[in-house]
């Protein structure tokens, strides 16, 4: 079994690949958050939803009023949590989560799987043959961070245009940022 198709989605500093500081995002860009929500929530087929997979620390970094992320099946990866909130899946690792999502009832109800962090989950996902895309927002800010997006070989990907992703430079509160969609060459996916 090749595995269920999945994509990573992240915003990082174009200067140092930073994605977080002290368990929080290093910037507050409302339009970028709306983009993240739209990409991870929108589905093509009525009656379906997307899954967002994240590590425990990423889950804990999200303000409680936004949990679980609405309109999506939330999946937390943790070896230390014993139970998850209602309507949230808890799995010990990424492989197990993808296995659960590839079987009933999720195999018919989940349209796409998005990896939303942190570093270790991104790194593992990017090494898997069923990685489809990386939705990467490059924020043109030099910020101090203690969490980073993993390096990847851009030769293994094509930058593609997606009608749902603006290609032009964005700006909010004087901060410039740009959306990129990297599609993996030679993909091996079941769904």
From TrEMBL:
Domain of life the protein comes from: Eukaryota
EC number: 1.5.1.3
Pfam families found in the cross-reference section: DHFR_1
Enzyme class: oxidoreductase
PROSITE patterns (alphabetical): DHFR_1, DHFR_2
Gene Ontology terms describing biological process: dihydrofolate metabolic process; folic acid metabolic process; one-carbon metabolic process; tetrahydrofolate biosynthetic process
Catalysed transformations (reactions): (6S)-5,6,7,8-tetrahydrofolate + NADP(+) = 7,8-dihydrofolate + NADPH + H(+)
Keywords: NADP, One-carbon metabolism, Oxidoreductase
A GO molecular-function annotation: dihydrofolate reductase activity
Keyword NADP (UniProt): yes
Metabolic or biological pathway: Cofactor biosynthesis; tetrahydrofolate biosynthesis; 5,6,7,8-tetrahydrofolate from 7,8-dihydrofolate: step 1/1
Cellular-component GO terms for this entry: mitochondrion
Record-stated family: Belongs to the dihydrofolate reductase family.
Protein name: dihydrofolate reductase
């Amino acid at each position: 079994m090749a595995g269920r198709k999945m994509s990573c989605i992240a915003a990082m500093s174009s200067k140092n690949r930073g994605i977080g500081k002290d368990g929080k995002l290093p910037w507050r860009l409302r339009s970028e958050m709306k983009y993240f929500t739209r990409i991870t929530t929108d589905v093509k087929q009525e009656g379906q939803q997307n899954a967002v997979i994240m590590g425990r620390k990423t889950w804990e970094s999200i303000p409680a009023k936004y949990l679980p992320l609405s309109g999506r099946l939330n999946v937390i990866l943790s070896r230390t949590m014993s139970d998850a909130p209602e309507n949230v899946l808890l799995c010990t690792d990424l492989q197990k989560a993808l296995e659960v999502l590839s079987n009933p009832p999720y195999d018919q109800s989940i349209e796409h799987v998005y990896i939303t962090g942190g570093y270790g989950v991104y790194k593992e996902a990017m090494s898997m043959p069923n990685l489809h895309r990386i939705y990467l927002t490059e924020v043109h800010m030099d910020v101090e961070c203690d969490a980073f997006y993993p390096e990847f070989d851009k030769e293994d990907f094509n930058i593609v245009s997606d009608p749902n992703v603006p290609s032009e430079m964005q700006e909010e509160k004087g901060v410039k940022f740009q959306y990129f969609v990297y599609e993996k060459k030679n993909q091996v996916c079941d769904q």
